[in-house]
Amino acid sequence: MAKVKVEYACTSCGFSSPKWLGKCPDCGKWGSLVEEVAAAEPKYRVAVDAFPASKPVRLTEVSGSAEVRAKSGIEEFDRVVGGGVVPSSAVLIGGDPGIGKSTILLQVARGLAREGKPVLYVSGEESEAQVKLRAARLGVEEKEIYLLSETSIERIMAAASEISPSVLLVDSIQTMFTSDLPGAPGSVGQVRECAGRLVFFAKKTGMSVFLVGHVTKDGSIAGPRVLEHLVDTVLYFEGEKGHPYRILKAVKNRFGSTNEIGVFEMRSSGLAEVADPSGLFLSERSGDTSGTLVFPAIEGTRPLLVEVQALAAQSFLAMPRRTTIGADTNRVILLCAILEKKAGFSLYNQDIFVNIAGGFQLDETAADLALSCAIAASFKDQVIPAGTAAFGEVGLGGEVRAVPMAEQRLNEASRMGFTRVILPASNAERLPSKYPLALVPVRHIKEAIAHSQKQGRS
Ligand SMILES: Nc1ncnc2c1ncn2[C@@H]1O[C@H](COP(=O)(O)OP(=O)(O)OP(=O)(O)O)[C@@H](O)[C@H]1O
Ligand SMILES: [Mg+2]
Protein backbone atom coordinates (compact mmCIF):
# COMPACT_ATOMS: atom_id res chain seq x y z
CA MET A 1 0.00 0.00 0.00
CA ALA A 2 1.36 3.40 -0.92
CA LYS A 3 2.39 5.36 2.15
CA VAL A 4 0.33 8.50 2.69
CA LYS A 5 2.49 11.58 3.10
CA VAL A 6 1.50 13.69 6.05
CA GLU A 7 2.26 17.25 7.00
CA TYR A 8 1.35 19.47 9.91
CA ALA A 9 -0.69 22.63 9.43
CA CYS A 10 -1.39 25.44 11.89
CA THR A 11 -5.12 25.86 12.55
CA SER A 12 -4.55 29.50 13.36
CA CYS A 13 -2.49 30.86 10.46
CA GLY A 14 -2.29 28.00 7.94
CA PHE A 15 1.50 27.53 8.27
CA SER A 16 2.54 24.02 7.25
CA SER A 17 5.55 22.00 8.34
CA PRO A 18 6.80 18.49 7.42
CA LYS A 19 7.22 17.66 11.15
CA TRP A 20 5.17 18.35 14.24
CA LEU A 21 6.11 21.41 16.28
CA GLY A 22 4.78 22.42 19.68
CA LYS A 23 4.71 26.10 18.76
CA CYS A 24 3.85 27.56 15.38
CA PRO A 25 6.94 29.50 14.24
CA ASP A 26 4.74 31.77 12.13
CA CYS A 27 2.01 32.98 14.52
CA GLY A 28 3.58 31.83 17.79
CA LYS A 29 0.55 29.84 18.97
CA TRP A 30 1.14 26.71 21.07
CA GLY A 31 -0.38 23.35 20.18
CA SER A 32 -2.02 24.64 17.02
CA LEU A 33 -0.35 22.27 14.51
CA VAL A 34 -2.58 19.38 13.39
CA GLU A 35 -1.82 16.40 11.21
CA GLU A 36 -3.07 16.49 7.63
CA VAL A 37 -2.65 14.45 4.48
CA ALA A 38 -0.19 16.36 2.33
CA ALA A 39 -1.24 17.28 -1.19
CA ALA A 40 0.54 14.98 -3.67
CA GLU A 41 1.49 18.05 -5.64
CA PRO A 42 0.43 21.59 -4.88
CA LYS A 43 -2.65 22.33 -6.96
CA TYR A 44 -3.65 25.87 -6.25
CA ARG A 45 -5.10 26.36 -9.67
CA VAL A 46 -8.22 28.28 -8.76
CA ALA A 47 -10.93 27.85 -11.41
CA VAL A 48 -9.35 30.53 -13.56
CA ASP A 49 -9.99 28.97 -16.92
CA ALA A 50 -13.74 29.22 -16.45
CA PHE A 51 -13.60 33.03 -16.68
CA PRO A 52 -12.12 35.35 -19.30
CA ALA A 53 -8.92 37.08 -18.20
CA SER A 54 -9.45 40.59 -16.79
CA LYS A 55 -7.74 43.60 -18.33
CA PRO A 56 -6.62 46.77 -16.54
CA VAL A 57 -9.28 49.49 -16.84
CA ARG A 58 -9.28 53.16 -15.95
CA LEU A 59 -10.83 53.87 -12.56
CA THR A 60 -13.12 56.45 -14.14
CA GLU A 61 -14.36 53.93 -16.66
CA VAL A 62 -15.36 51.25 -14.18
CA SER A 63 -19.10 50.81 -14.43
CA GLY A 64 -21.51 50.19 -11.58
CA SER A 65 -20.06 52.78 -9.24
CA ALA A 66 -23.47 53.50 -7.74
CA GLU A 67 -23.73 51.00 -4.92
CA VAL A 68 -26.84 48.87 -5.09
CA ARG A 69 -27.41 46.92 -1.91
CA ALA A 70 -29.94 44.14 -1.63
CA LYS A 71 -32.09 44.49 1.48
CA SER A 72 -33.10 41.39 3.38
CA GLY A 73 -35.91 43.31 5.07
CA ILE A 74 -34.50 42.26 8.46
CA GLU A 75 -33.45 45.67 9.73
CA GLU A 76 -31.15 44.39 12.47
CA PHE A 77 -29.27 42.29 9.89
CA ASP A 78 -29.15 44.92 7.14
CA ARG A 79 -27.72 47.51 9.52
CA VAL A 80 -24.93 45.19 10.71
CA VAL A 81 -23.82 44.41 7.14
CA GLY A 82 -23.69 48.14 6.42
CA GLY A 83 -27.11 48.82 4.91
CA GLY A 84 -27.78 45.71 2.84
CA VAL A 85 -25.94 42.99 0.96
CA VAL A 86 -23.37 44.23 -1.57
CA PRO A 87 -23.22 42.33 -4.91
CA SER A 88 -20.02 40.27 -5.42
CA SER A 89 -19.27 40.36 -1.72
CA ALA A 90 -18.26 37.43 0.47
CA VAL A 91 -19.59 37.34 4.03
CA LEU A 92 -18.49 34.90 6.73
CA ILE A 93 -20.86 34.20 9.63
CA GLY A 94 -19.32 32.50 12.65
CA GLY A 95 -21.03 31.24 15.77
CA ASP A 96 -21.26 28.49 18.38
CA PRO A 97 -23.06 25.26 17.50
CA GLY A 98 -26.83 25.66 17.64
CA ILE A 99 -26.75 29.44 18.05
CA GLY A 100 -28.96 29.94 14.99
CA LYS A 101 -26.65 30.43 12.00
CA SER A 102 -28.73 28.32 9.64
CA THR A 103 -31.89 29.97 10.96
CA ILE A 104 -30.74 33.51 10.28
CA LEU A 105 -29.47 32.56 6.82
CA LEU A 106 -32.81 31.04 5.92
CA GLN A 107 -34.63 34.16 7.12
CA VAL A 108 -32.23 36.37 5.16
CA ALA A 109 -32.87 34.14 2.13
CA ARG A 110 -36.60 34.72 2.54
CA GLY A 111 -36.14 38.51 2.68
CA LEU A 112 -33.91 38.55 -0.39
CA ALA A 113 -36.23 36.22 -2.34
CA ARG A 114 -39.13 38.56 -1.57
CA GLU A 115 -37.12 41.36 -3.15
CA GLY A 116 -36.92 39.26 -6.31
CA LYS A 117 -33.38 38.01 -5.70
CA PRO A 118 -33.04 34.25 -6.32
CA VAL A 119 -31.11 32.49 -3.55
CA LEU A 120 -29.28 29.16 -3.64
CA TYR A 121 -28.97 27.62 -0.17
CA VAL A 122 -26.30 24.91 -0.11
CA SER A 123 -26.18 22.73 2.96
CA GLY A 124 -23.29 20.38 3.55
CA GLU A 125 -24.61 19.42 6.97
CA GLU A 126 -28.29 18.77 6.43
CA SER A 127 -30.35 17.04 3.76
CA GLU A 128 -32.85 19.03 1.68
CA ALA A 129 -35.65 17.48 3.76
CA GLN A 130 -34.06 18.70 7.00
CA VAL A 131 -33.66 22.22 5.67
CA LYS A 132 -37.25 22.08 4.42
CA LEU A 133 -38.37 21.07 7.93
CA ARG A 134 -36.73 24.16 9.43
CA ALA A 135 -38.10 26.33 6.62
CA ALA A 136 -41.60 25.06 7.34
CA ARG A 137 -41.18 25.89 11.05
CA LEU A 138 -40.02 29.41 10.16
CA GLY A 139 -42.74 29.84 7.55
CA VAL A 140 -40.24 30.27 4.71
CA GLU A 141 -41.91 29.21 1.47
CA GLU A 142 -40.57 31.51 -1.24
CA LYS A 143 -40.30 30.01 -4.72
CA GLU A 144 -37.08 31.88 -5.44
CA ILE A 145 -35.15 29.86 -2.84
CA TYR A 146 -33.32 26.81 -4.24
CA LEU A 147 -31.92 24.09 -1.97
CA LEU A 148 -28.91 21.92 -2.61
CA SER A 149 -27.41 19.34 -0.28
CA GLU A 150 -23.84 19.03 -1.51
CA THR A 151 -20.26 19.22 -0.24
CA SER A 152 -18.21 19.21 -3.45
CA ILE A 153 -17.17 22.75 -4.29
CA GLU A 154 -16.92 21.95 -8.01
CA ARG A 155 -20.50 20.69 -8.13
CA ILE A 156 -21.75 23.64 -6.09
CA MET A 157 -20.14 26.13 -8.47
CA ALA A 158 -21.54 24.22 -11.45
CA ALA A 159 -25.05 24.28 -9.94
CA ALA A 160 -24.72 27.98 -9.09
CA SER A 161 -23.55 28.79 -12.63
CA GLU A 162 -26.57 26.95 -13.99
CA ILE A 163 -29.27 28.78 -12.06
CA SER A 164 -27.29 32.05 -11.50
CA PRO A 165 -28.78 33.10 -8.18
CA SER A 166 -28.10 36.59 -6.79
CA VAL A 167 -27.03 35.11 -3.49
CA LEU A 168 -25.24 31.85 -2.69
CA LEU A 169 -25.42 30.58 0.91
CA VAL A 170 -22.91 27.91 1.94
CA ASP A 171 -23.64 26.16 5.24
CA SER A 172 -20.89 25.45 6.33
CA ILE A 173 -17.44 26.05 4.84
CA GLN A 174 -15.96 23.32 7.10
CA THR A 175 -18.02 20.63 5.32
CA MET A 176 -16.89 21.61 1.80
CA PHE A 177 -14.08 19.96 -0.13
CA THR A 178 -12.38 20.10 -3.47
CA SER A 179 -11.18 16.92 -5.18
CA ASP A 180 -7.97 18.75 -6.13
CA LEU A 181 -6.69 18.39 -2.57
CA PRO A 182 -6.48 15.08 -0.75
CA GLY A 183 -7.21 16.43 2.78
CA ALA A 184 -10.51 15.74 4.55
CA PRO A 185 -13.26 18.41 4.62
CA GLY A 186 -12.59 20.81 7.50
CA SER A 187 -8.79 20.56 7.20
CA VAL A 188 -6.88 23.81 6.94
CA GLY A 189 -5.98 23.30 3.28
CA GLN A 190 -9.52 22.38 2.23
CA VAL A 191 -11.19 25.24 4.12
CA ARG A 192 -8.74 27.77 2.71
CA GLU A 193 -8.97 26.48 -0.83
CA CYS A 194 -12.78 26.16 -0.89
CA ALA A 195 -13.27 29.61 0.62
CA GLY A 196 -10.74 31.08 -1.82
CA ARG A 197 -12.56 29.60 -4.78
CA LEU A 198 -15.95 30.78 -3.57
CA VAL A 199 -14.68 34.33 -3.00
CA PHE A 200 -13.15 34.33 -6.49
CA PHE A 201 -16.41 32.96 -7.86
CA ALA A 202 -18.35 35.77 -6.16
CA LYS A 203 -16.10 38.49 -7.61
CA LYS A 204 -16.32 37.06 -11.11
CA THR A 205 -20.04 36.30 -11.26
CA GLY A 206 -21.45 39.18 -9.19
CA MET A 207 -23.17 36.80 -6.76
CA SER A 208 -23.01 37.56 -3.06
CA VAL A 209 -21.66 34.58 -1.15
CA PHE A 210 -22.40 33.85 2.51
CA LEU A 211 -20.23 31.28 4.27
CA VAL A 212 -21.12 29.78 7.63
CA GLY A 213 -18.06 29.09 9.76
CA HIS A 214 -17.90 27.00 12.92
CA VAL A 215 -16.05 28.46 15.86
CA THR A 216 -13.43 26.73 17.98
CA LYS A 217 -13.51 26.44 21.77
CA ASP A 218 -11.68 29.73 22.18
CA GLY A 219 -14.31 31.49 20.08
CA SER A 220 -12.44 32.10 16.82
CA ILE A 221 -13.62 30.77 13.47
CA ALA A 222 -12.34 27.22 12.98
CA GLY A 223 -9.82 26.86 10.20
CA PRO A 224 -7.06 29.14 9.06
CA ARG A 225 -7.01 32.75 10.15
CA VAL A 226 -6.58 33.67 6.50
CA LEU A 227 -10.28 32.91 6.08
CA GLU A 228 -11.07 36.22 7.75
CA HIS A 229 -8.70 38.05 5.39
CA LEU A 230 -10.20 36.41 2.31
CA VAL A 231 -13.76 37.62 2.83
CA ASP A 232 -15.17 41.15 2.79
CA THR A 233 -17.23 40.92 5.94
CA VAL A 234 -16.95 38.79 9.07
CA LEU A 235 -20.00 38.53 11.30
CA TYR A 236 -20.23 36.78 14.65
CA PHE A 237 -23.49 35.48 16.01
CA GLU A 238 -23.37 35.30 19.79
CA GLY A 239 -25.62 34.55 22.71
CA GLU A 240 -25.54 33.68 26.37
CA LYS A 241 -26.32 30.07 27.27
CA GLY A 242 -29.87 29.75 28.54
CA HIS A 243 -30.92 33.18 27.21
CA PRO A 244 -33.04 33.45 24.08
CA TYR A 245 -31.23 36.66 23.02
CA ARG A 246 -28.72 36.66 20.19
CA ILE A 247 -26.38 39.44 19.12
CA LEU A 248 -25.06 39.75 15.58
CA LYS A 249 -21.80 41.71 15.37
CA ALA A 250 -19.54 42.70 12.51
CA VAL A 251 -15.85 42.28 13.36
CA LYS A 252 -14.67 43.18 9.87
CA ASN A 253 -16.59 45.00 7.18
CA ARG A 254 -15.20 46.39 3.94
CA PHE A 255 -18.54 48.07 3.22
CA GLY A 256 -19.64 49.46 6.55
CA SER A 257 -18.98 50.14 10.20
CA THR A 258 -17.89 47.34 12.52
CA ASN A 259 -19.52 48.91 15.55
CA GLU A 260 -23.10 48.02 14.73
CA ILE A 261 -24.90 45.21 16.51
CA GLY A 262 -28.19 43.52 15.70
CA VAL A 263 -30.24 42.07 18.56
CA PHE A 264 -32.57 39.09 18.05
CA GLU A 265 -34.70 36.83 20.18
CA MET A 266 -34.82 33.11 19.34
CA ARG A 267 -38.40 31.85 19.21
CA SER A 268 -39.86 28.65 17.81
CA SER A 269 -41.00 30.68 14.80
CA GLY A 270 -37.43 31.86 14.21
CA LEU A 271 -35.34 34.89 15.12
CA ALA A 272 -37.41 37.94 15.98
CA GLU A 273 -35.83 41.39 15.82
CA VAL A 274 -35.49 43.26 19.11
CA ALA A 275 -36.00 46.85 18.12
CA ASP A 276 -35.63 48.20 21.67
CA PRO A 277 -32.47 46.64 23.15
CA SER A 278 -32.32 49.23 25.98
CA GLY A 279 -35.56 47.84 27.35
CA LEU A 280 -34.08 44.36 27.06
CA PHE A 281 -30.84 45.11 28.92
CA LEU A 282 -32.66 46.97 31.70
CA SER A 283 -35.65 44.64 32.01
CA GLU A 284 -34.50 42.91 35.19
CA ARG A 285 -33.14 45.97 36.94
CA SER A 286 -34.17 46.47 40.54
CA GLY A 287 -33.95 50.04 41.75
CA ASP A 288 -32.81 49.52 45.34
CA THR A 289 -29.44 47.76 45.11
CA SER A 290 -26.27 49.60 46.03
CA GLY A 291 -23.53 49.95 43.48
CA THR A 292 -25.53 49.92 40.26
CA LEU A 293 -25.96 52.67 37.71
CA VAL A 294 -27.13 52.95 34.14
CA PHE A 295 -24.75 53.94 31.36
CA PRO A 296 -25.99 55.15 27.96
CA ALA A 297 -23.58 53.32 25.64
CA ILE A 298 -23.20 53.83 21.90
CA GLU A 299 -23.03 50.77 19.67
CA GLY A 300 -22.19 51.91 16.17
CA THR A 301 -24.73 54.61 15.50
CA ARG A 302 -27.21 53.45 18.08
CA PRO A 303 -27.50 54.36 21.77
CA LEU A 304 -28.11 51.50 24.17
CA LEU A 305 -28.70 51.70 27.92
CA VAL A 306 -26.82 49.13 29.99
CA GLU A 307 -26.65 48.51 33.70
CA VAL A 308 -23.22 48.76 35.32
CA GLN A 309 -22.96 46.77 38.55
CA ALA A 310 -20.10 46.99 41.05
CA LEU A 311 -19.43 45.19 44.28
CA ALA A 312 -16.73 46.23 46.75
CA ALA A 313 -16.16 43.67 49.48
CA GLN A 314 -13.46 43.50 52.13
CA SER A 315 -10.56 41.41 50.90
CA PHE A 316 -8.67 38.80 52.88
CA LEU A 317 -6.06 38.39 50.18
CA ALA A 318 -2.61 39.94 50.08
CA MET A 319 -3.46 41.17 46.57
CA PRO A 320 -7.13 42.21 46.45
CA ARG A 321 -9.01 41.03 43.40
CA ARG A 322 -10.22 43.15 40.51
CA THR A 323 -12.62 40.94 38.55
CA THR A 324 -14.67 42.23 35.65
CA ILE A 325 -17.22 40.71 33.30
CA GLY A 326 -18.14 42.87 30.34
CA ALA A 327 -15.65 45.65 31.17
CA ASP A 328 -11.91 46.07 30.64
CA THR A 329 -10.07 44.92 33.80
CA ASN A 330 -7.15 47.30 33.25
CA ARG A 331 -9.55 50.22 32.96
CA VAL A 332 -11.23 49.23 36.23
CA ILE A 333 -7.82 48.95 37.97
CA LEU A 334 -6.99 52.43 36.67
CA LEU A 335 -10.31 53.84 37.90
CA CYS A 336 -9.77 52.26 41.33
CA ALA A 337 -6.38 53.99 41.52
CA ILE A 338 -7.98 57.32 40.59
CA LEU A 339 -10.71 56.83 43.20
CA GLU A 340 -8.04 56.07 45.80
CA LYS A 341 -5.73 58.96 44.99
CA LYS A 342 -8.10 61.69 43.79
CA ALA A 343 -11.34 61.00 45.61
CA GLY A 344 -10.10 59.61 48.92
CA PHE A 345 -11.51 56.08 48.77
CA SER A 346 -9.41 53.39 50.49
CA LEU A 347 -9.85 50.51 48.11
CA TYR A 348 -6.50 48.84 48.88
CA ASN A 349 -8.19 46.23 51.09
CA GLN A 350 -11.26 45.76 48.93
CA ASP A 351 -12.02 43.10 46.33
CA ILE A 352 -13.76 44.86 43.45
CA PHE A 353 -16.11 43.02 41.11
CA VAL A 354 -17.68 44.68 38.09
CA ASN A 355 -20.40 43.15 35.96
CA ILE A 356 -22.28 44.51 32.99
CA ALA A 357 -25.78 43.07 33.12
CA GLY A 358 -27.18 41.10 30.19
CA GLY A 359 -23.82 39.88 28.88
CA PHE A 360 -23.05 43.21 27.22
CA GLN A 361 -19.40 44.12 26.50
CA LEU A 362 -18.34 47.71 27.27
CA ASP A 363 -15.56 49.08 25.09
CA GLU A 364 -15.93 52.84 25.47
CA THR A 365 -13.99 55.10 27.82
CA ALA A 366 -17.29 56.99 28.17
CA ALA A 367 -18.25 54.31 30.71
CA ASP A 368 -15.56 55.55 33.18
CA LEU A 369 -17.89 57.82 35.11
CA ALA A 370 -20.63 55.22 35.50
CA LEU A 371 -18.06 52.61 36.58
CA SER A 372 -16.47 54.97 39.14
CA CYS A 373 -19.82 56.03 40.61
CA ALA A 374 -20.95 52.38 40.85
CA ILE A 375 -17.72 51.32 42.62
CA ALA A 376 -17.91 54.30 45.00
CA ALA A 377 -21.57 53.62 45.79
CA SER A 378 -20.91 49.95 46.52
CA PHE A 379 -17.98 50.86 48.75
CA LYS A 380 -20.18 53.25 50.75
CA ASP A 381 -23.13 50.85 50.49
CA GLN A 382 -25.30 53.60 49.08
CA VAL A 383 -28.12 53.29 46.60
CA ILE A 384 -27.89 55.57 43.59
CA PRO A 385 -31.46 56.82 42.99
CA ALA A 386 -33.23 54.91 40.23
CA GLY A 387 -33.67 57.17 37.23
CA THR A 388 -30.00 58.26 37.31
CA ALA A 389 -27.65 57.59 34.41
CA ALA A 390 -24.04 58.72 33.93
CA PHE A 391 -21.49 58.97 31.15
CA GLY A 392 -18.07 60.61 30.73
CA GLU A 393 -14.41 59.76 30.51
CA VAL A 394 -12.21 60.09 33.60
CA GLY A 395 -8.60 61.27 33.27
CA LEU A 396 -5.74 60.31 35.59
CA GLY A 397 -6.12 63.61 37.46
CA GLY A 398 -9.72 62.72 38.29
CA GLU A 399 -11.00 65.25 35.75
CA VAL A 400 -14.14 64.37 33.78
CA ARG A 401 -13.69 64.69 30.03
CA ALA A 402 -16.11 65.14 27.16
CA VAL A 403 -17.21 62.12 25.11
CA PRO A 404 -18.75 61.87 21.62
CA MET A 405 -22.48 61.58 20.85
CA ALA A 406 -23.77 63.14 24.08
CA GLU A 407 -27.09 64.13 22.48
CA GLN A 408 -27.91 60.59 21.36
CA ARG A 409 -27.11 59.29 24.84
CA LEU A 410 -29.38 61.92 26.44
CA ASN A 411 -32.21 61.23 23.99
CA GLU A 412 -32.12 57.53 24.73
CA ALA A 413 -32.02 58.13 28.50
CA SER A 414 -35.03 60.43 28.33
CA ARG A 415 -36.87 58.02 26.02
CA MET A 416 -36.41 55.26 28.59
CA GLY A 417 -37.80 57.46 31.38
CA PHE A 418 -34.58 58.50 33.13
CA THR A 419 -34.84 61.74 35.07
CA ARG A 420 -31.23 62.66 35.84
CA VAL A 421 -28.03 62.32 33.86
CA ILE A 422 -24.55 63.05 35.22
CA LEU A 423 -22.37 64.15 32.33
CA PRO A 424 -19.11 66.02 31.61
CA ALA A 425 -19.52 69.82 31.99
CA SER A 426 -17.77 70.35 28.65
CA ASN A 427 -20.45 68.22 26.95
CA ALA A 428 -23.27 70.02 28.77
CA GLU A 429 -22.00 73.45 27.58
CA ARG A 430 -22.25 72.42 23.95
CA LEU A 431 -25.71 70.90 23.94
CA PRO A 432 -27.92 72.54 21.32
CA SER A 433 -31.32 71.90 22.87
CA LYS A 434 -33.08 71.45 26.17
CA TYR A 435 -33.83 67.99 27.47
CA PRO A 436 -36.79 66.81 29.55
CA LEU A 437 -34.44 65.52 32.22
CA ALA A 438 -32.20 67.07 34.85
CA LEU A 439 -28.63 67.47 33.64
CA VAL A 440 -25.87 67.31 36.24
CA PRO A 441 -22.70 68.71 34.65
CA VAL A 442 -19.52 67.72 36.51
CA ARG A 443 -15.82 68.56 36.11
CA HIS A 444 -14.26 66.19 38.63
CA ILE A 445 -14.90 62.62 39.68
CA LYS A 446 -15.46 63.78 43.30
CA GLU A 447 -18.33 66.02 42.18
CA ALA A 448 -19.86 63.18 40.19
CA ILE A 449 -19.79 60.80 43.16
CA ALA A 450 -21.31 63.43 45.45
CA HIS A 451 -24.10 64.13 42.95
CA SER A 452 -24.77 60.49 42.15
CA GLN A 453 -26.02 59.95 45.69
CA LYS A 454 -28.24 63.01 45.78
CA GLN A 455 -31.78 63.10 44.54
CA GLY A 456 -33.21 65.84 42.36
CA ARG A 457 -31.81 68.64 40.23
CA SER A 458 -28.49 70.06 41.32
N1 LIG B 1 -38.94 24.23 17.82
C1 LIG B 1 -38.06 25.13 18.28
N2 LIG B 1 -38.47 26.05 19.15
C2 LIG B 1 -37.61 26.99 19.60
N3 LIG B 1 -36.34 27.09 19.24
C3 LIG B 1 -35.89 26.18 18.38
C4 LIG B 1 -36.72 25.16 17.86
N4 LIG B 1 -35.97 24.43 17.03
C5 LIG B 1 -34.74 24.95 17.04
N5 LIG B 1 -34.70 26.01 17.86
C6 LIG B 1 -33.55 26.87 18.14
O1 LIG B 1 -32.74 26.92 17.01
C7 LIG B 1 -31.40 26.57 17.35
C8 LIG B 1 -30.76 25.85 16.22
O2 LIG B 1 -30.69 26.75 15.14
P1 LIG B 1 -29.77 26.51 13.89
O3 LIG B 1 -29.91 25.10 13.42
O4 LIG B 1 -30.04 27.60 12.95
O5 LIG B 1 -28.35 26.70 14.54
P2 LIG B 1 -26.94 26.58 13.83
O6 LIG B 1 -26.10 27.67 14.41
O7 LIG B 1 -27.09 26.50 12.37
O8 LIG B 1 -26.44 25.19 14.40
P3 LIG B 1 -25.30 24.22 13.81
O9 LIG B 1 -24.01 24.77 14.29
O10 LIG B 1 -25.61 22.90 14.42
O11 LIG B 1 -25.45 24.22 12.32
C9 LIG B 1 -31.54 25.71 18.57
O12 LIG B 1 -30.38 25.79 19.39
C10 LIG B 1 -32.72 26.31 19.27
O13 LIG B 1 -32.30 27.41 20.06
MG1 LIG C 1 -26.59 25.01 10.98
For the structure shown, list the relevant keywords.
458 residues, alpha/beta, Rossmann fold, Ribosomal Protein S5, domain 2, 3 domains, nine-stranded mixed beta sheet, 26% helix, 25% strand, binds adenosine-5'-triphosphate, binds magnesium ion
Structure in words:
The structure is a single chain. Helix content is 26%, strand content 25%. It has 458 residues and is α/β, with parallel strands linked by helices. It has 3 domains: 6-37; 69-275, 3-Layer(aba) Sandwich (Rossmann fold), CATH 3.40.50.300; 280-452, Ribosomal Protein S5, domain 2. The strands form 5 sheets. The protein has a 9-stranded mixed sheet with strand order 6-5-7-8-4-9-10-11-12, with helices on both faces. A 4-stranded mixed sheet has the order 13-14-16-15. Helix 8 (329-342) crosses helix 9 (368-380) and helix 9 crosses helix 12. The longest helix is centred in the middle third of the chain and has 18 residues, at 188-205. The radius of gyration is 26 Å and the shape is globular. Adenosine-5'-triphosphate (ATP) binds at residues 95, 97-103, 125, 266, 268.
Contiguous uncertain segments of 5+ residues: none
- How would you state the average pLDDT, rounded? 86
- Total DSSP E strands: 21
The fold-level CATH name of the largest domain is: Rossmann fold
Count of the domains: 3
Q: Helix/strand-derived class?
A: alpha/beta
Secondary structure: helix percent: 25-40%
Bound molecules: adenosine-5'-triphosphate, magnesium ion
CATH superfamily of the largest domain: P-loop containing nucleotide triphosphate hydrolases
Largest sheet report: 9 strands, mixed
Strand order in space, largest sheet: 6-5-7-8-4-9-10-11-12
- What is the highest CATH level, the class of the largest domain? Alpha Beta
Which strand-content bin applies to the residues?
25-35%
**Distance linking N and C termini:** 86 Å
Query: Which word captures the global form?
Result: globular
Taking Cα atoms only, what radius of gyration do you get, to the nearest Å?
Answer: 26 Å
Q: Total helix count?
A: 12
